[in-house]
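Hi W.,

Here's what went into the run:
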Amino acid sequence: MLNLNANEFTLTNHIFQTLETIAKSYGYEAVFTETFGKYNYKMDTGAVKIMAPSGDLLSLKSDPTPHATKQIAPLCDGYLKTYYKSSIVTLDHKAPIGLKESLQGGFEYYGNSGTESDAEIILLNCMVLNKLGVQNIHLDIGHIFFTAELIKSLNFSDTDLPDIEKALRKRSVESIKNLSLHQRKSLEKLLTLTGSPIEVIKKAKTLATTPTLVESLDQLESIINKIKDLDSEQITKHKIALDLCLTHPKSYYTGPLFKIYSVDTGKTVAQGGRYDDLSKQYGYEFEACGGAIDIKNIIEVIKMKNTMTTYRTNFVLIYDEELFNPALDFTNWLRKKGFSVKFNLRPKDYSIALQSDYFKSVNQILDFNDGFIKVIDQLKNETYRISPEALKSRLVSNPTSISIH
Amino acid sequence: MLTIALSKGRVANAFLEKLRVRGIAIEPGSEKSLQFYDSSMQLKFILVKADDVPTYVQSAVAELGVVGSDVLKEYEFDGYELLDLKIGSCKLCLAGPATHAYYEKTWVTVASKYPKSTELFLKNSGKLGTVIKLNGSVELGPVVGISDVIVDLVESGRTLRDNNLIVIEEIEDVSTRLISNPVAYKTKFEAINLLIERLRNIEKEILHV
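Here's what came out:
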């Protein structure tokens, strides 16, 4: 189900390593999330259900956040910061067998209700993306209470709610054309409330008629200011926007939300928010916020920007039986210098083999001959002959011409 | 600049005409090329097959798209539907021979270009059946016996009458929508909203006449 080729798998590892390095530098601890959990009808919508031999109904992990929360709950006696790497399986009618397996990595910050924790989580996700070269991003911040409270204050009937939900999700004014003029005008204002934080907050204050609405806006303003304070490298500068229609498919979110998009692909690359009530599901009570990166969509951005070569094997060295020793010596020299090398006896159908993924996924093919090497540079699309010694000096003098892991 | 993916043919022509009415200059005949611009070079148009419009928008190649709501439903489009352009308004209908006792049957075979919408309709109406995907001339389904009934777009109903079919049930209204990728909507918010306002004003003016 998780259809990754060798390059994508290498890249996935690199993404996880990047997340782990950043998490550790901020004092986050690794948490392992269990594969199965007792089925919870509230938490496990979209999860695969399995009947255990004991007769218990279990769910296969479809969302690491509830699993992580459940696991750390007995340990949480104050602040706790964790990170995870996980594979998840969800029901997806678009997938060939109706199931989709994907990879997710994320950060969770427990026991802190302050906006500095929301800001830190958002910034950590941005830092991972920035480190991976996904820099052309758009960061939306919203608040689940703002939308919910505004809808409540406009006294809609239950029959209007599906249309309102559609209007918010699709930004479609047509969906609410049957509402009263006052209701429609207020919702239209909400639908167009997007853009620079200062402008949006100013406009939103005209809609904030209840203490909850005012409090939500204050919270968002505080998060944005704290992100600016924490973001010493200014990776989020000019990239933050407020979107007060922001919603999340998971029902356990209780406060500020965020969503980070890649501008290059238009896809979501990270998202999360605050979920203070989730621990109550497991008999505990502590605040929490978190966010996760979307590995598949990040790989898509990296592929699109053609920076995938950094994660490819540098060389495959092909030799004939009689040249085994000098070819191995040359390979070992390359490996000592930090290059990644595949070492292979010349395949029988060499020209056909060159078309396979095994060969196509390396940057250069080194065809080792007696006294010379035929170099096929697959990145520059050029072929040349060079002596082993000359190639060594070239690599020593300019190692960056070939990316080293 | 905004890139707009247009569904080739009647929809594209009607949309371009709307823009011309609002003073956006587009050279007549530009649409013979698959890619062209308005005279101020603020809008770039790409002409694609209707089924491909959501793909262009979803993958951020085009910031906006113009396509029927029938296509969006089949594609399960996940972006924004900003405006009903009121182009090509028609209805998605269940139709069949006047003699077919649809409501009495427990199992029906339905031919359609819209298998997802058809399956959803059957499910919502508690009907059991098989959906056969056809790419065109769906009205032939009951005539040649490949299906009991059809689900298709009905505008004037003439094609149905020509094939001795009647509308059994209207499923939903269909019309052309202006769609956007969420990121494009946010990053080019001002330009997109300006265009929406110009298009909305046409509707208002028409209503005032």
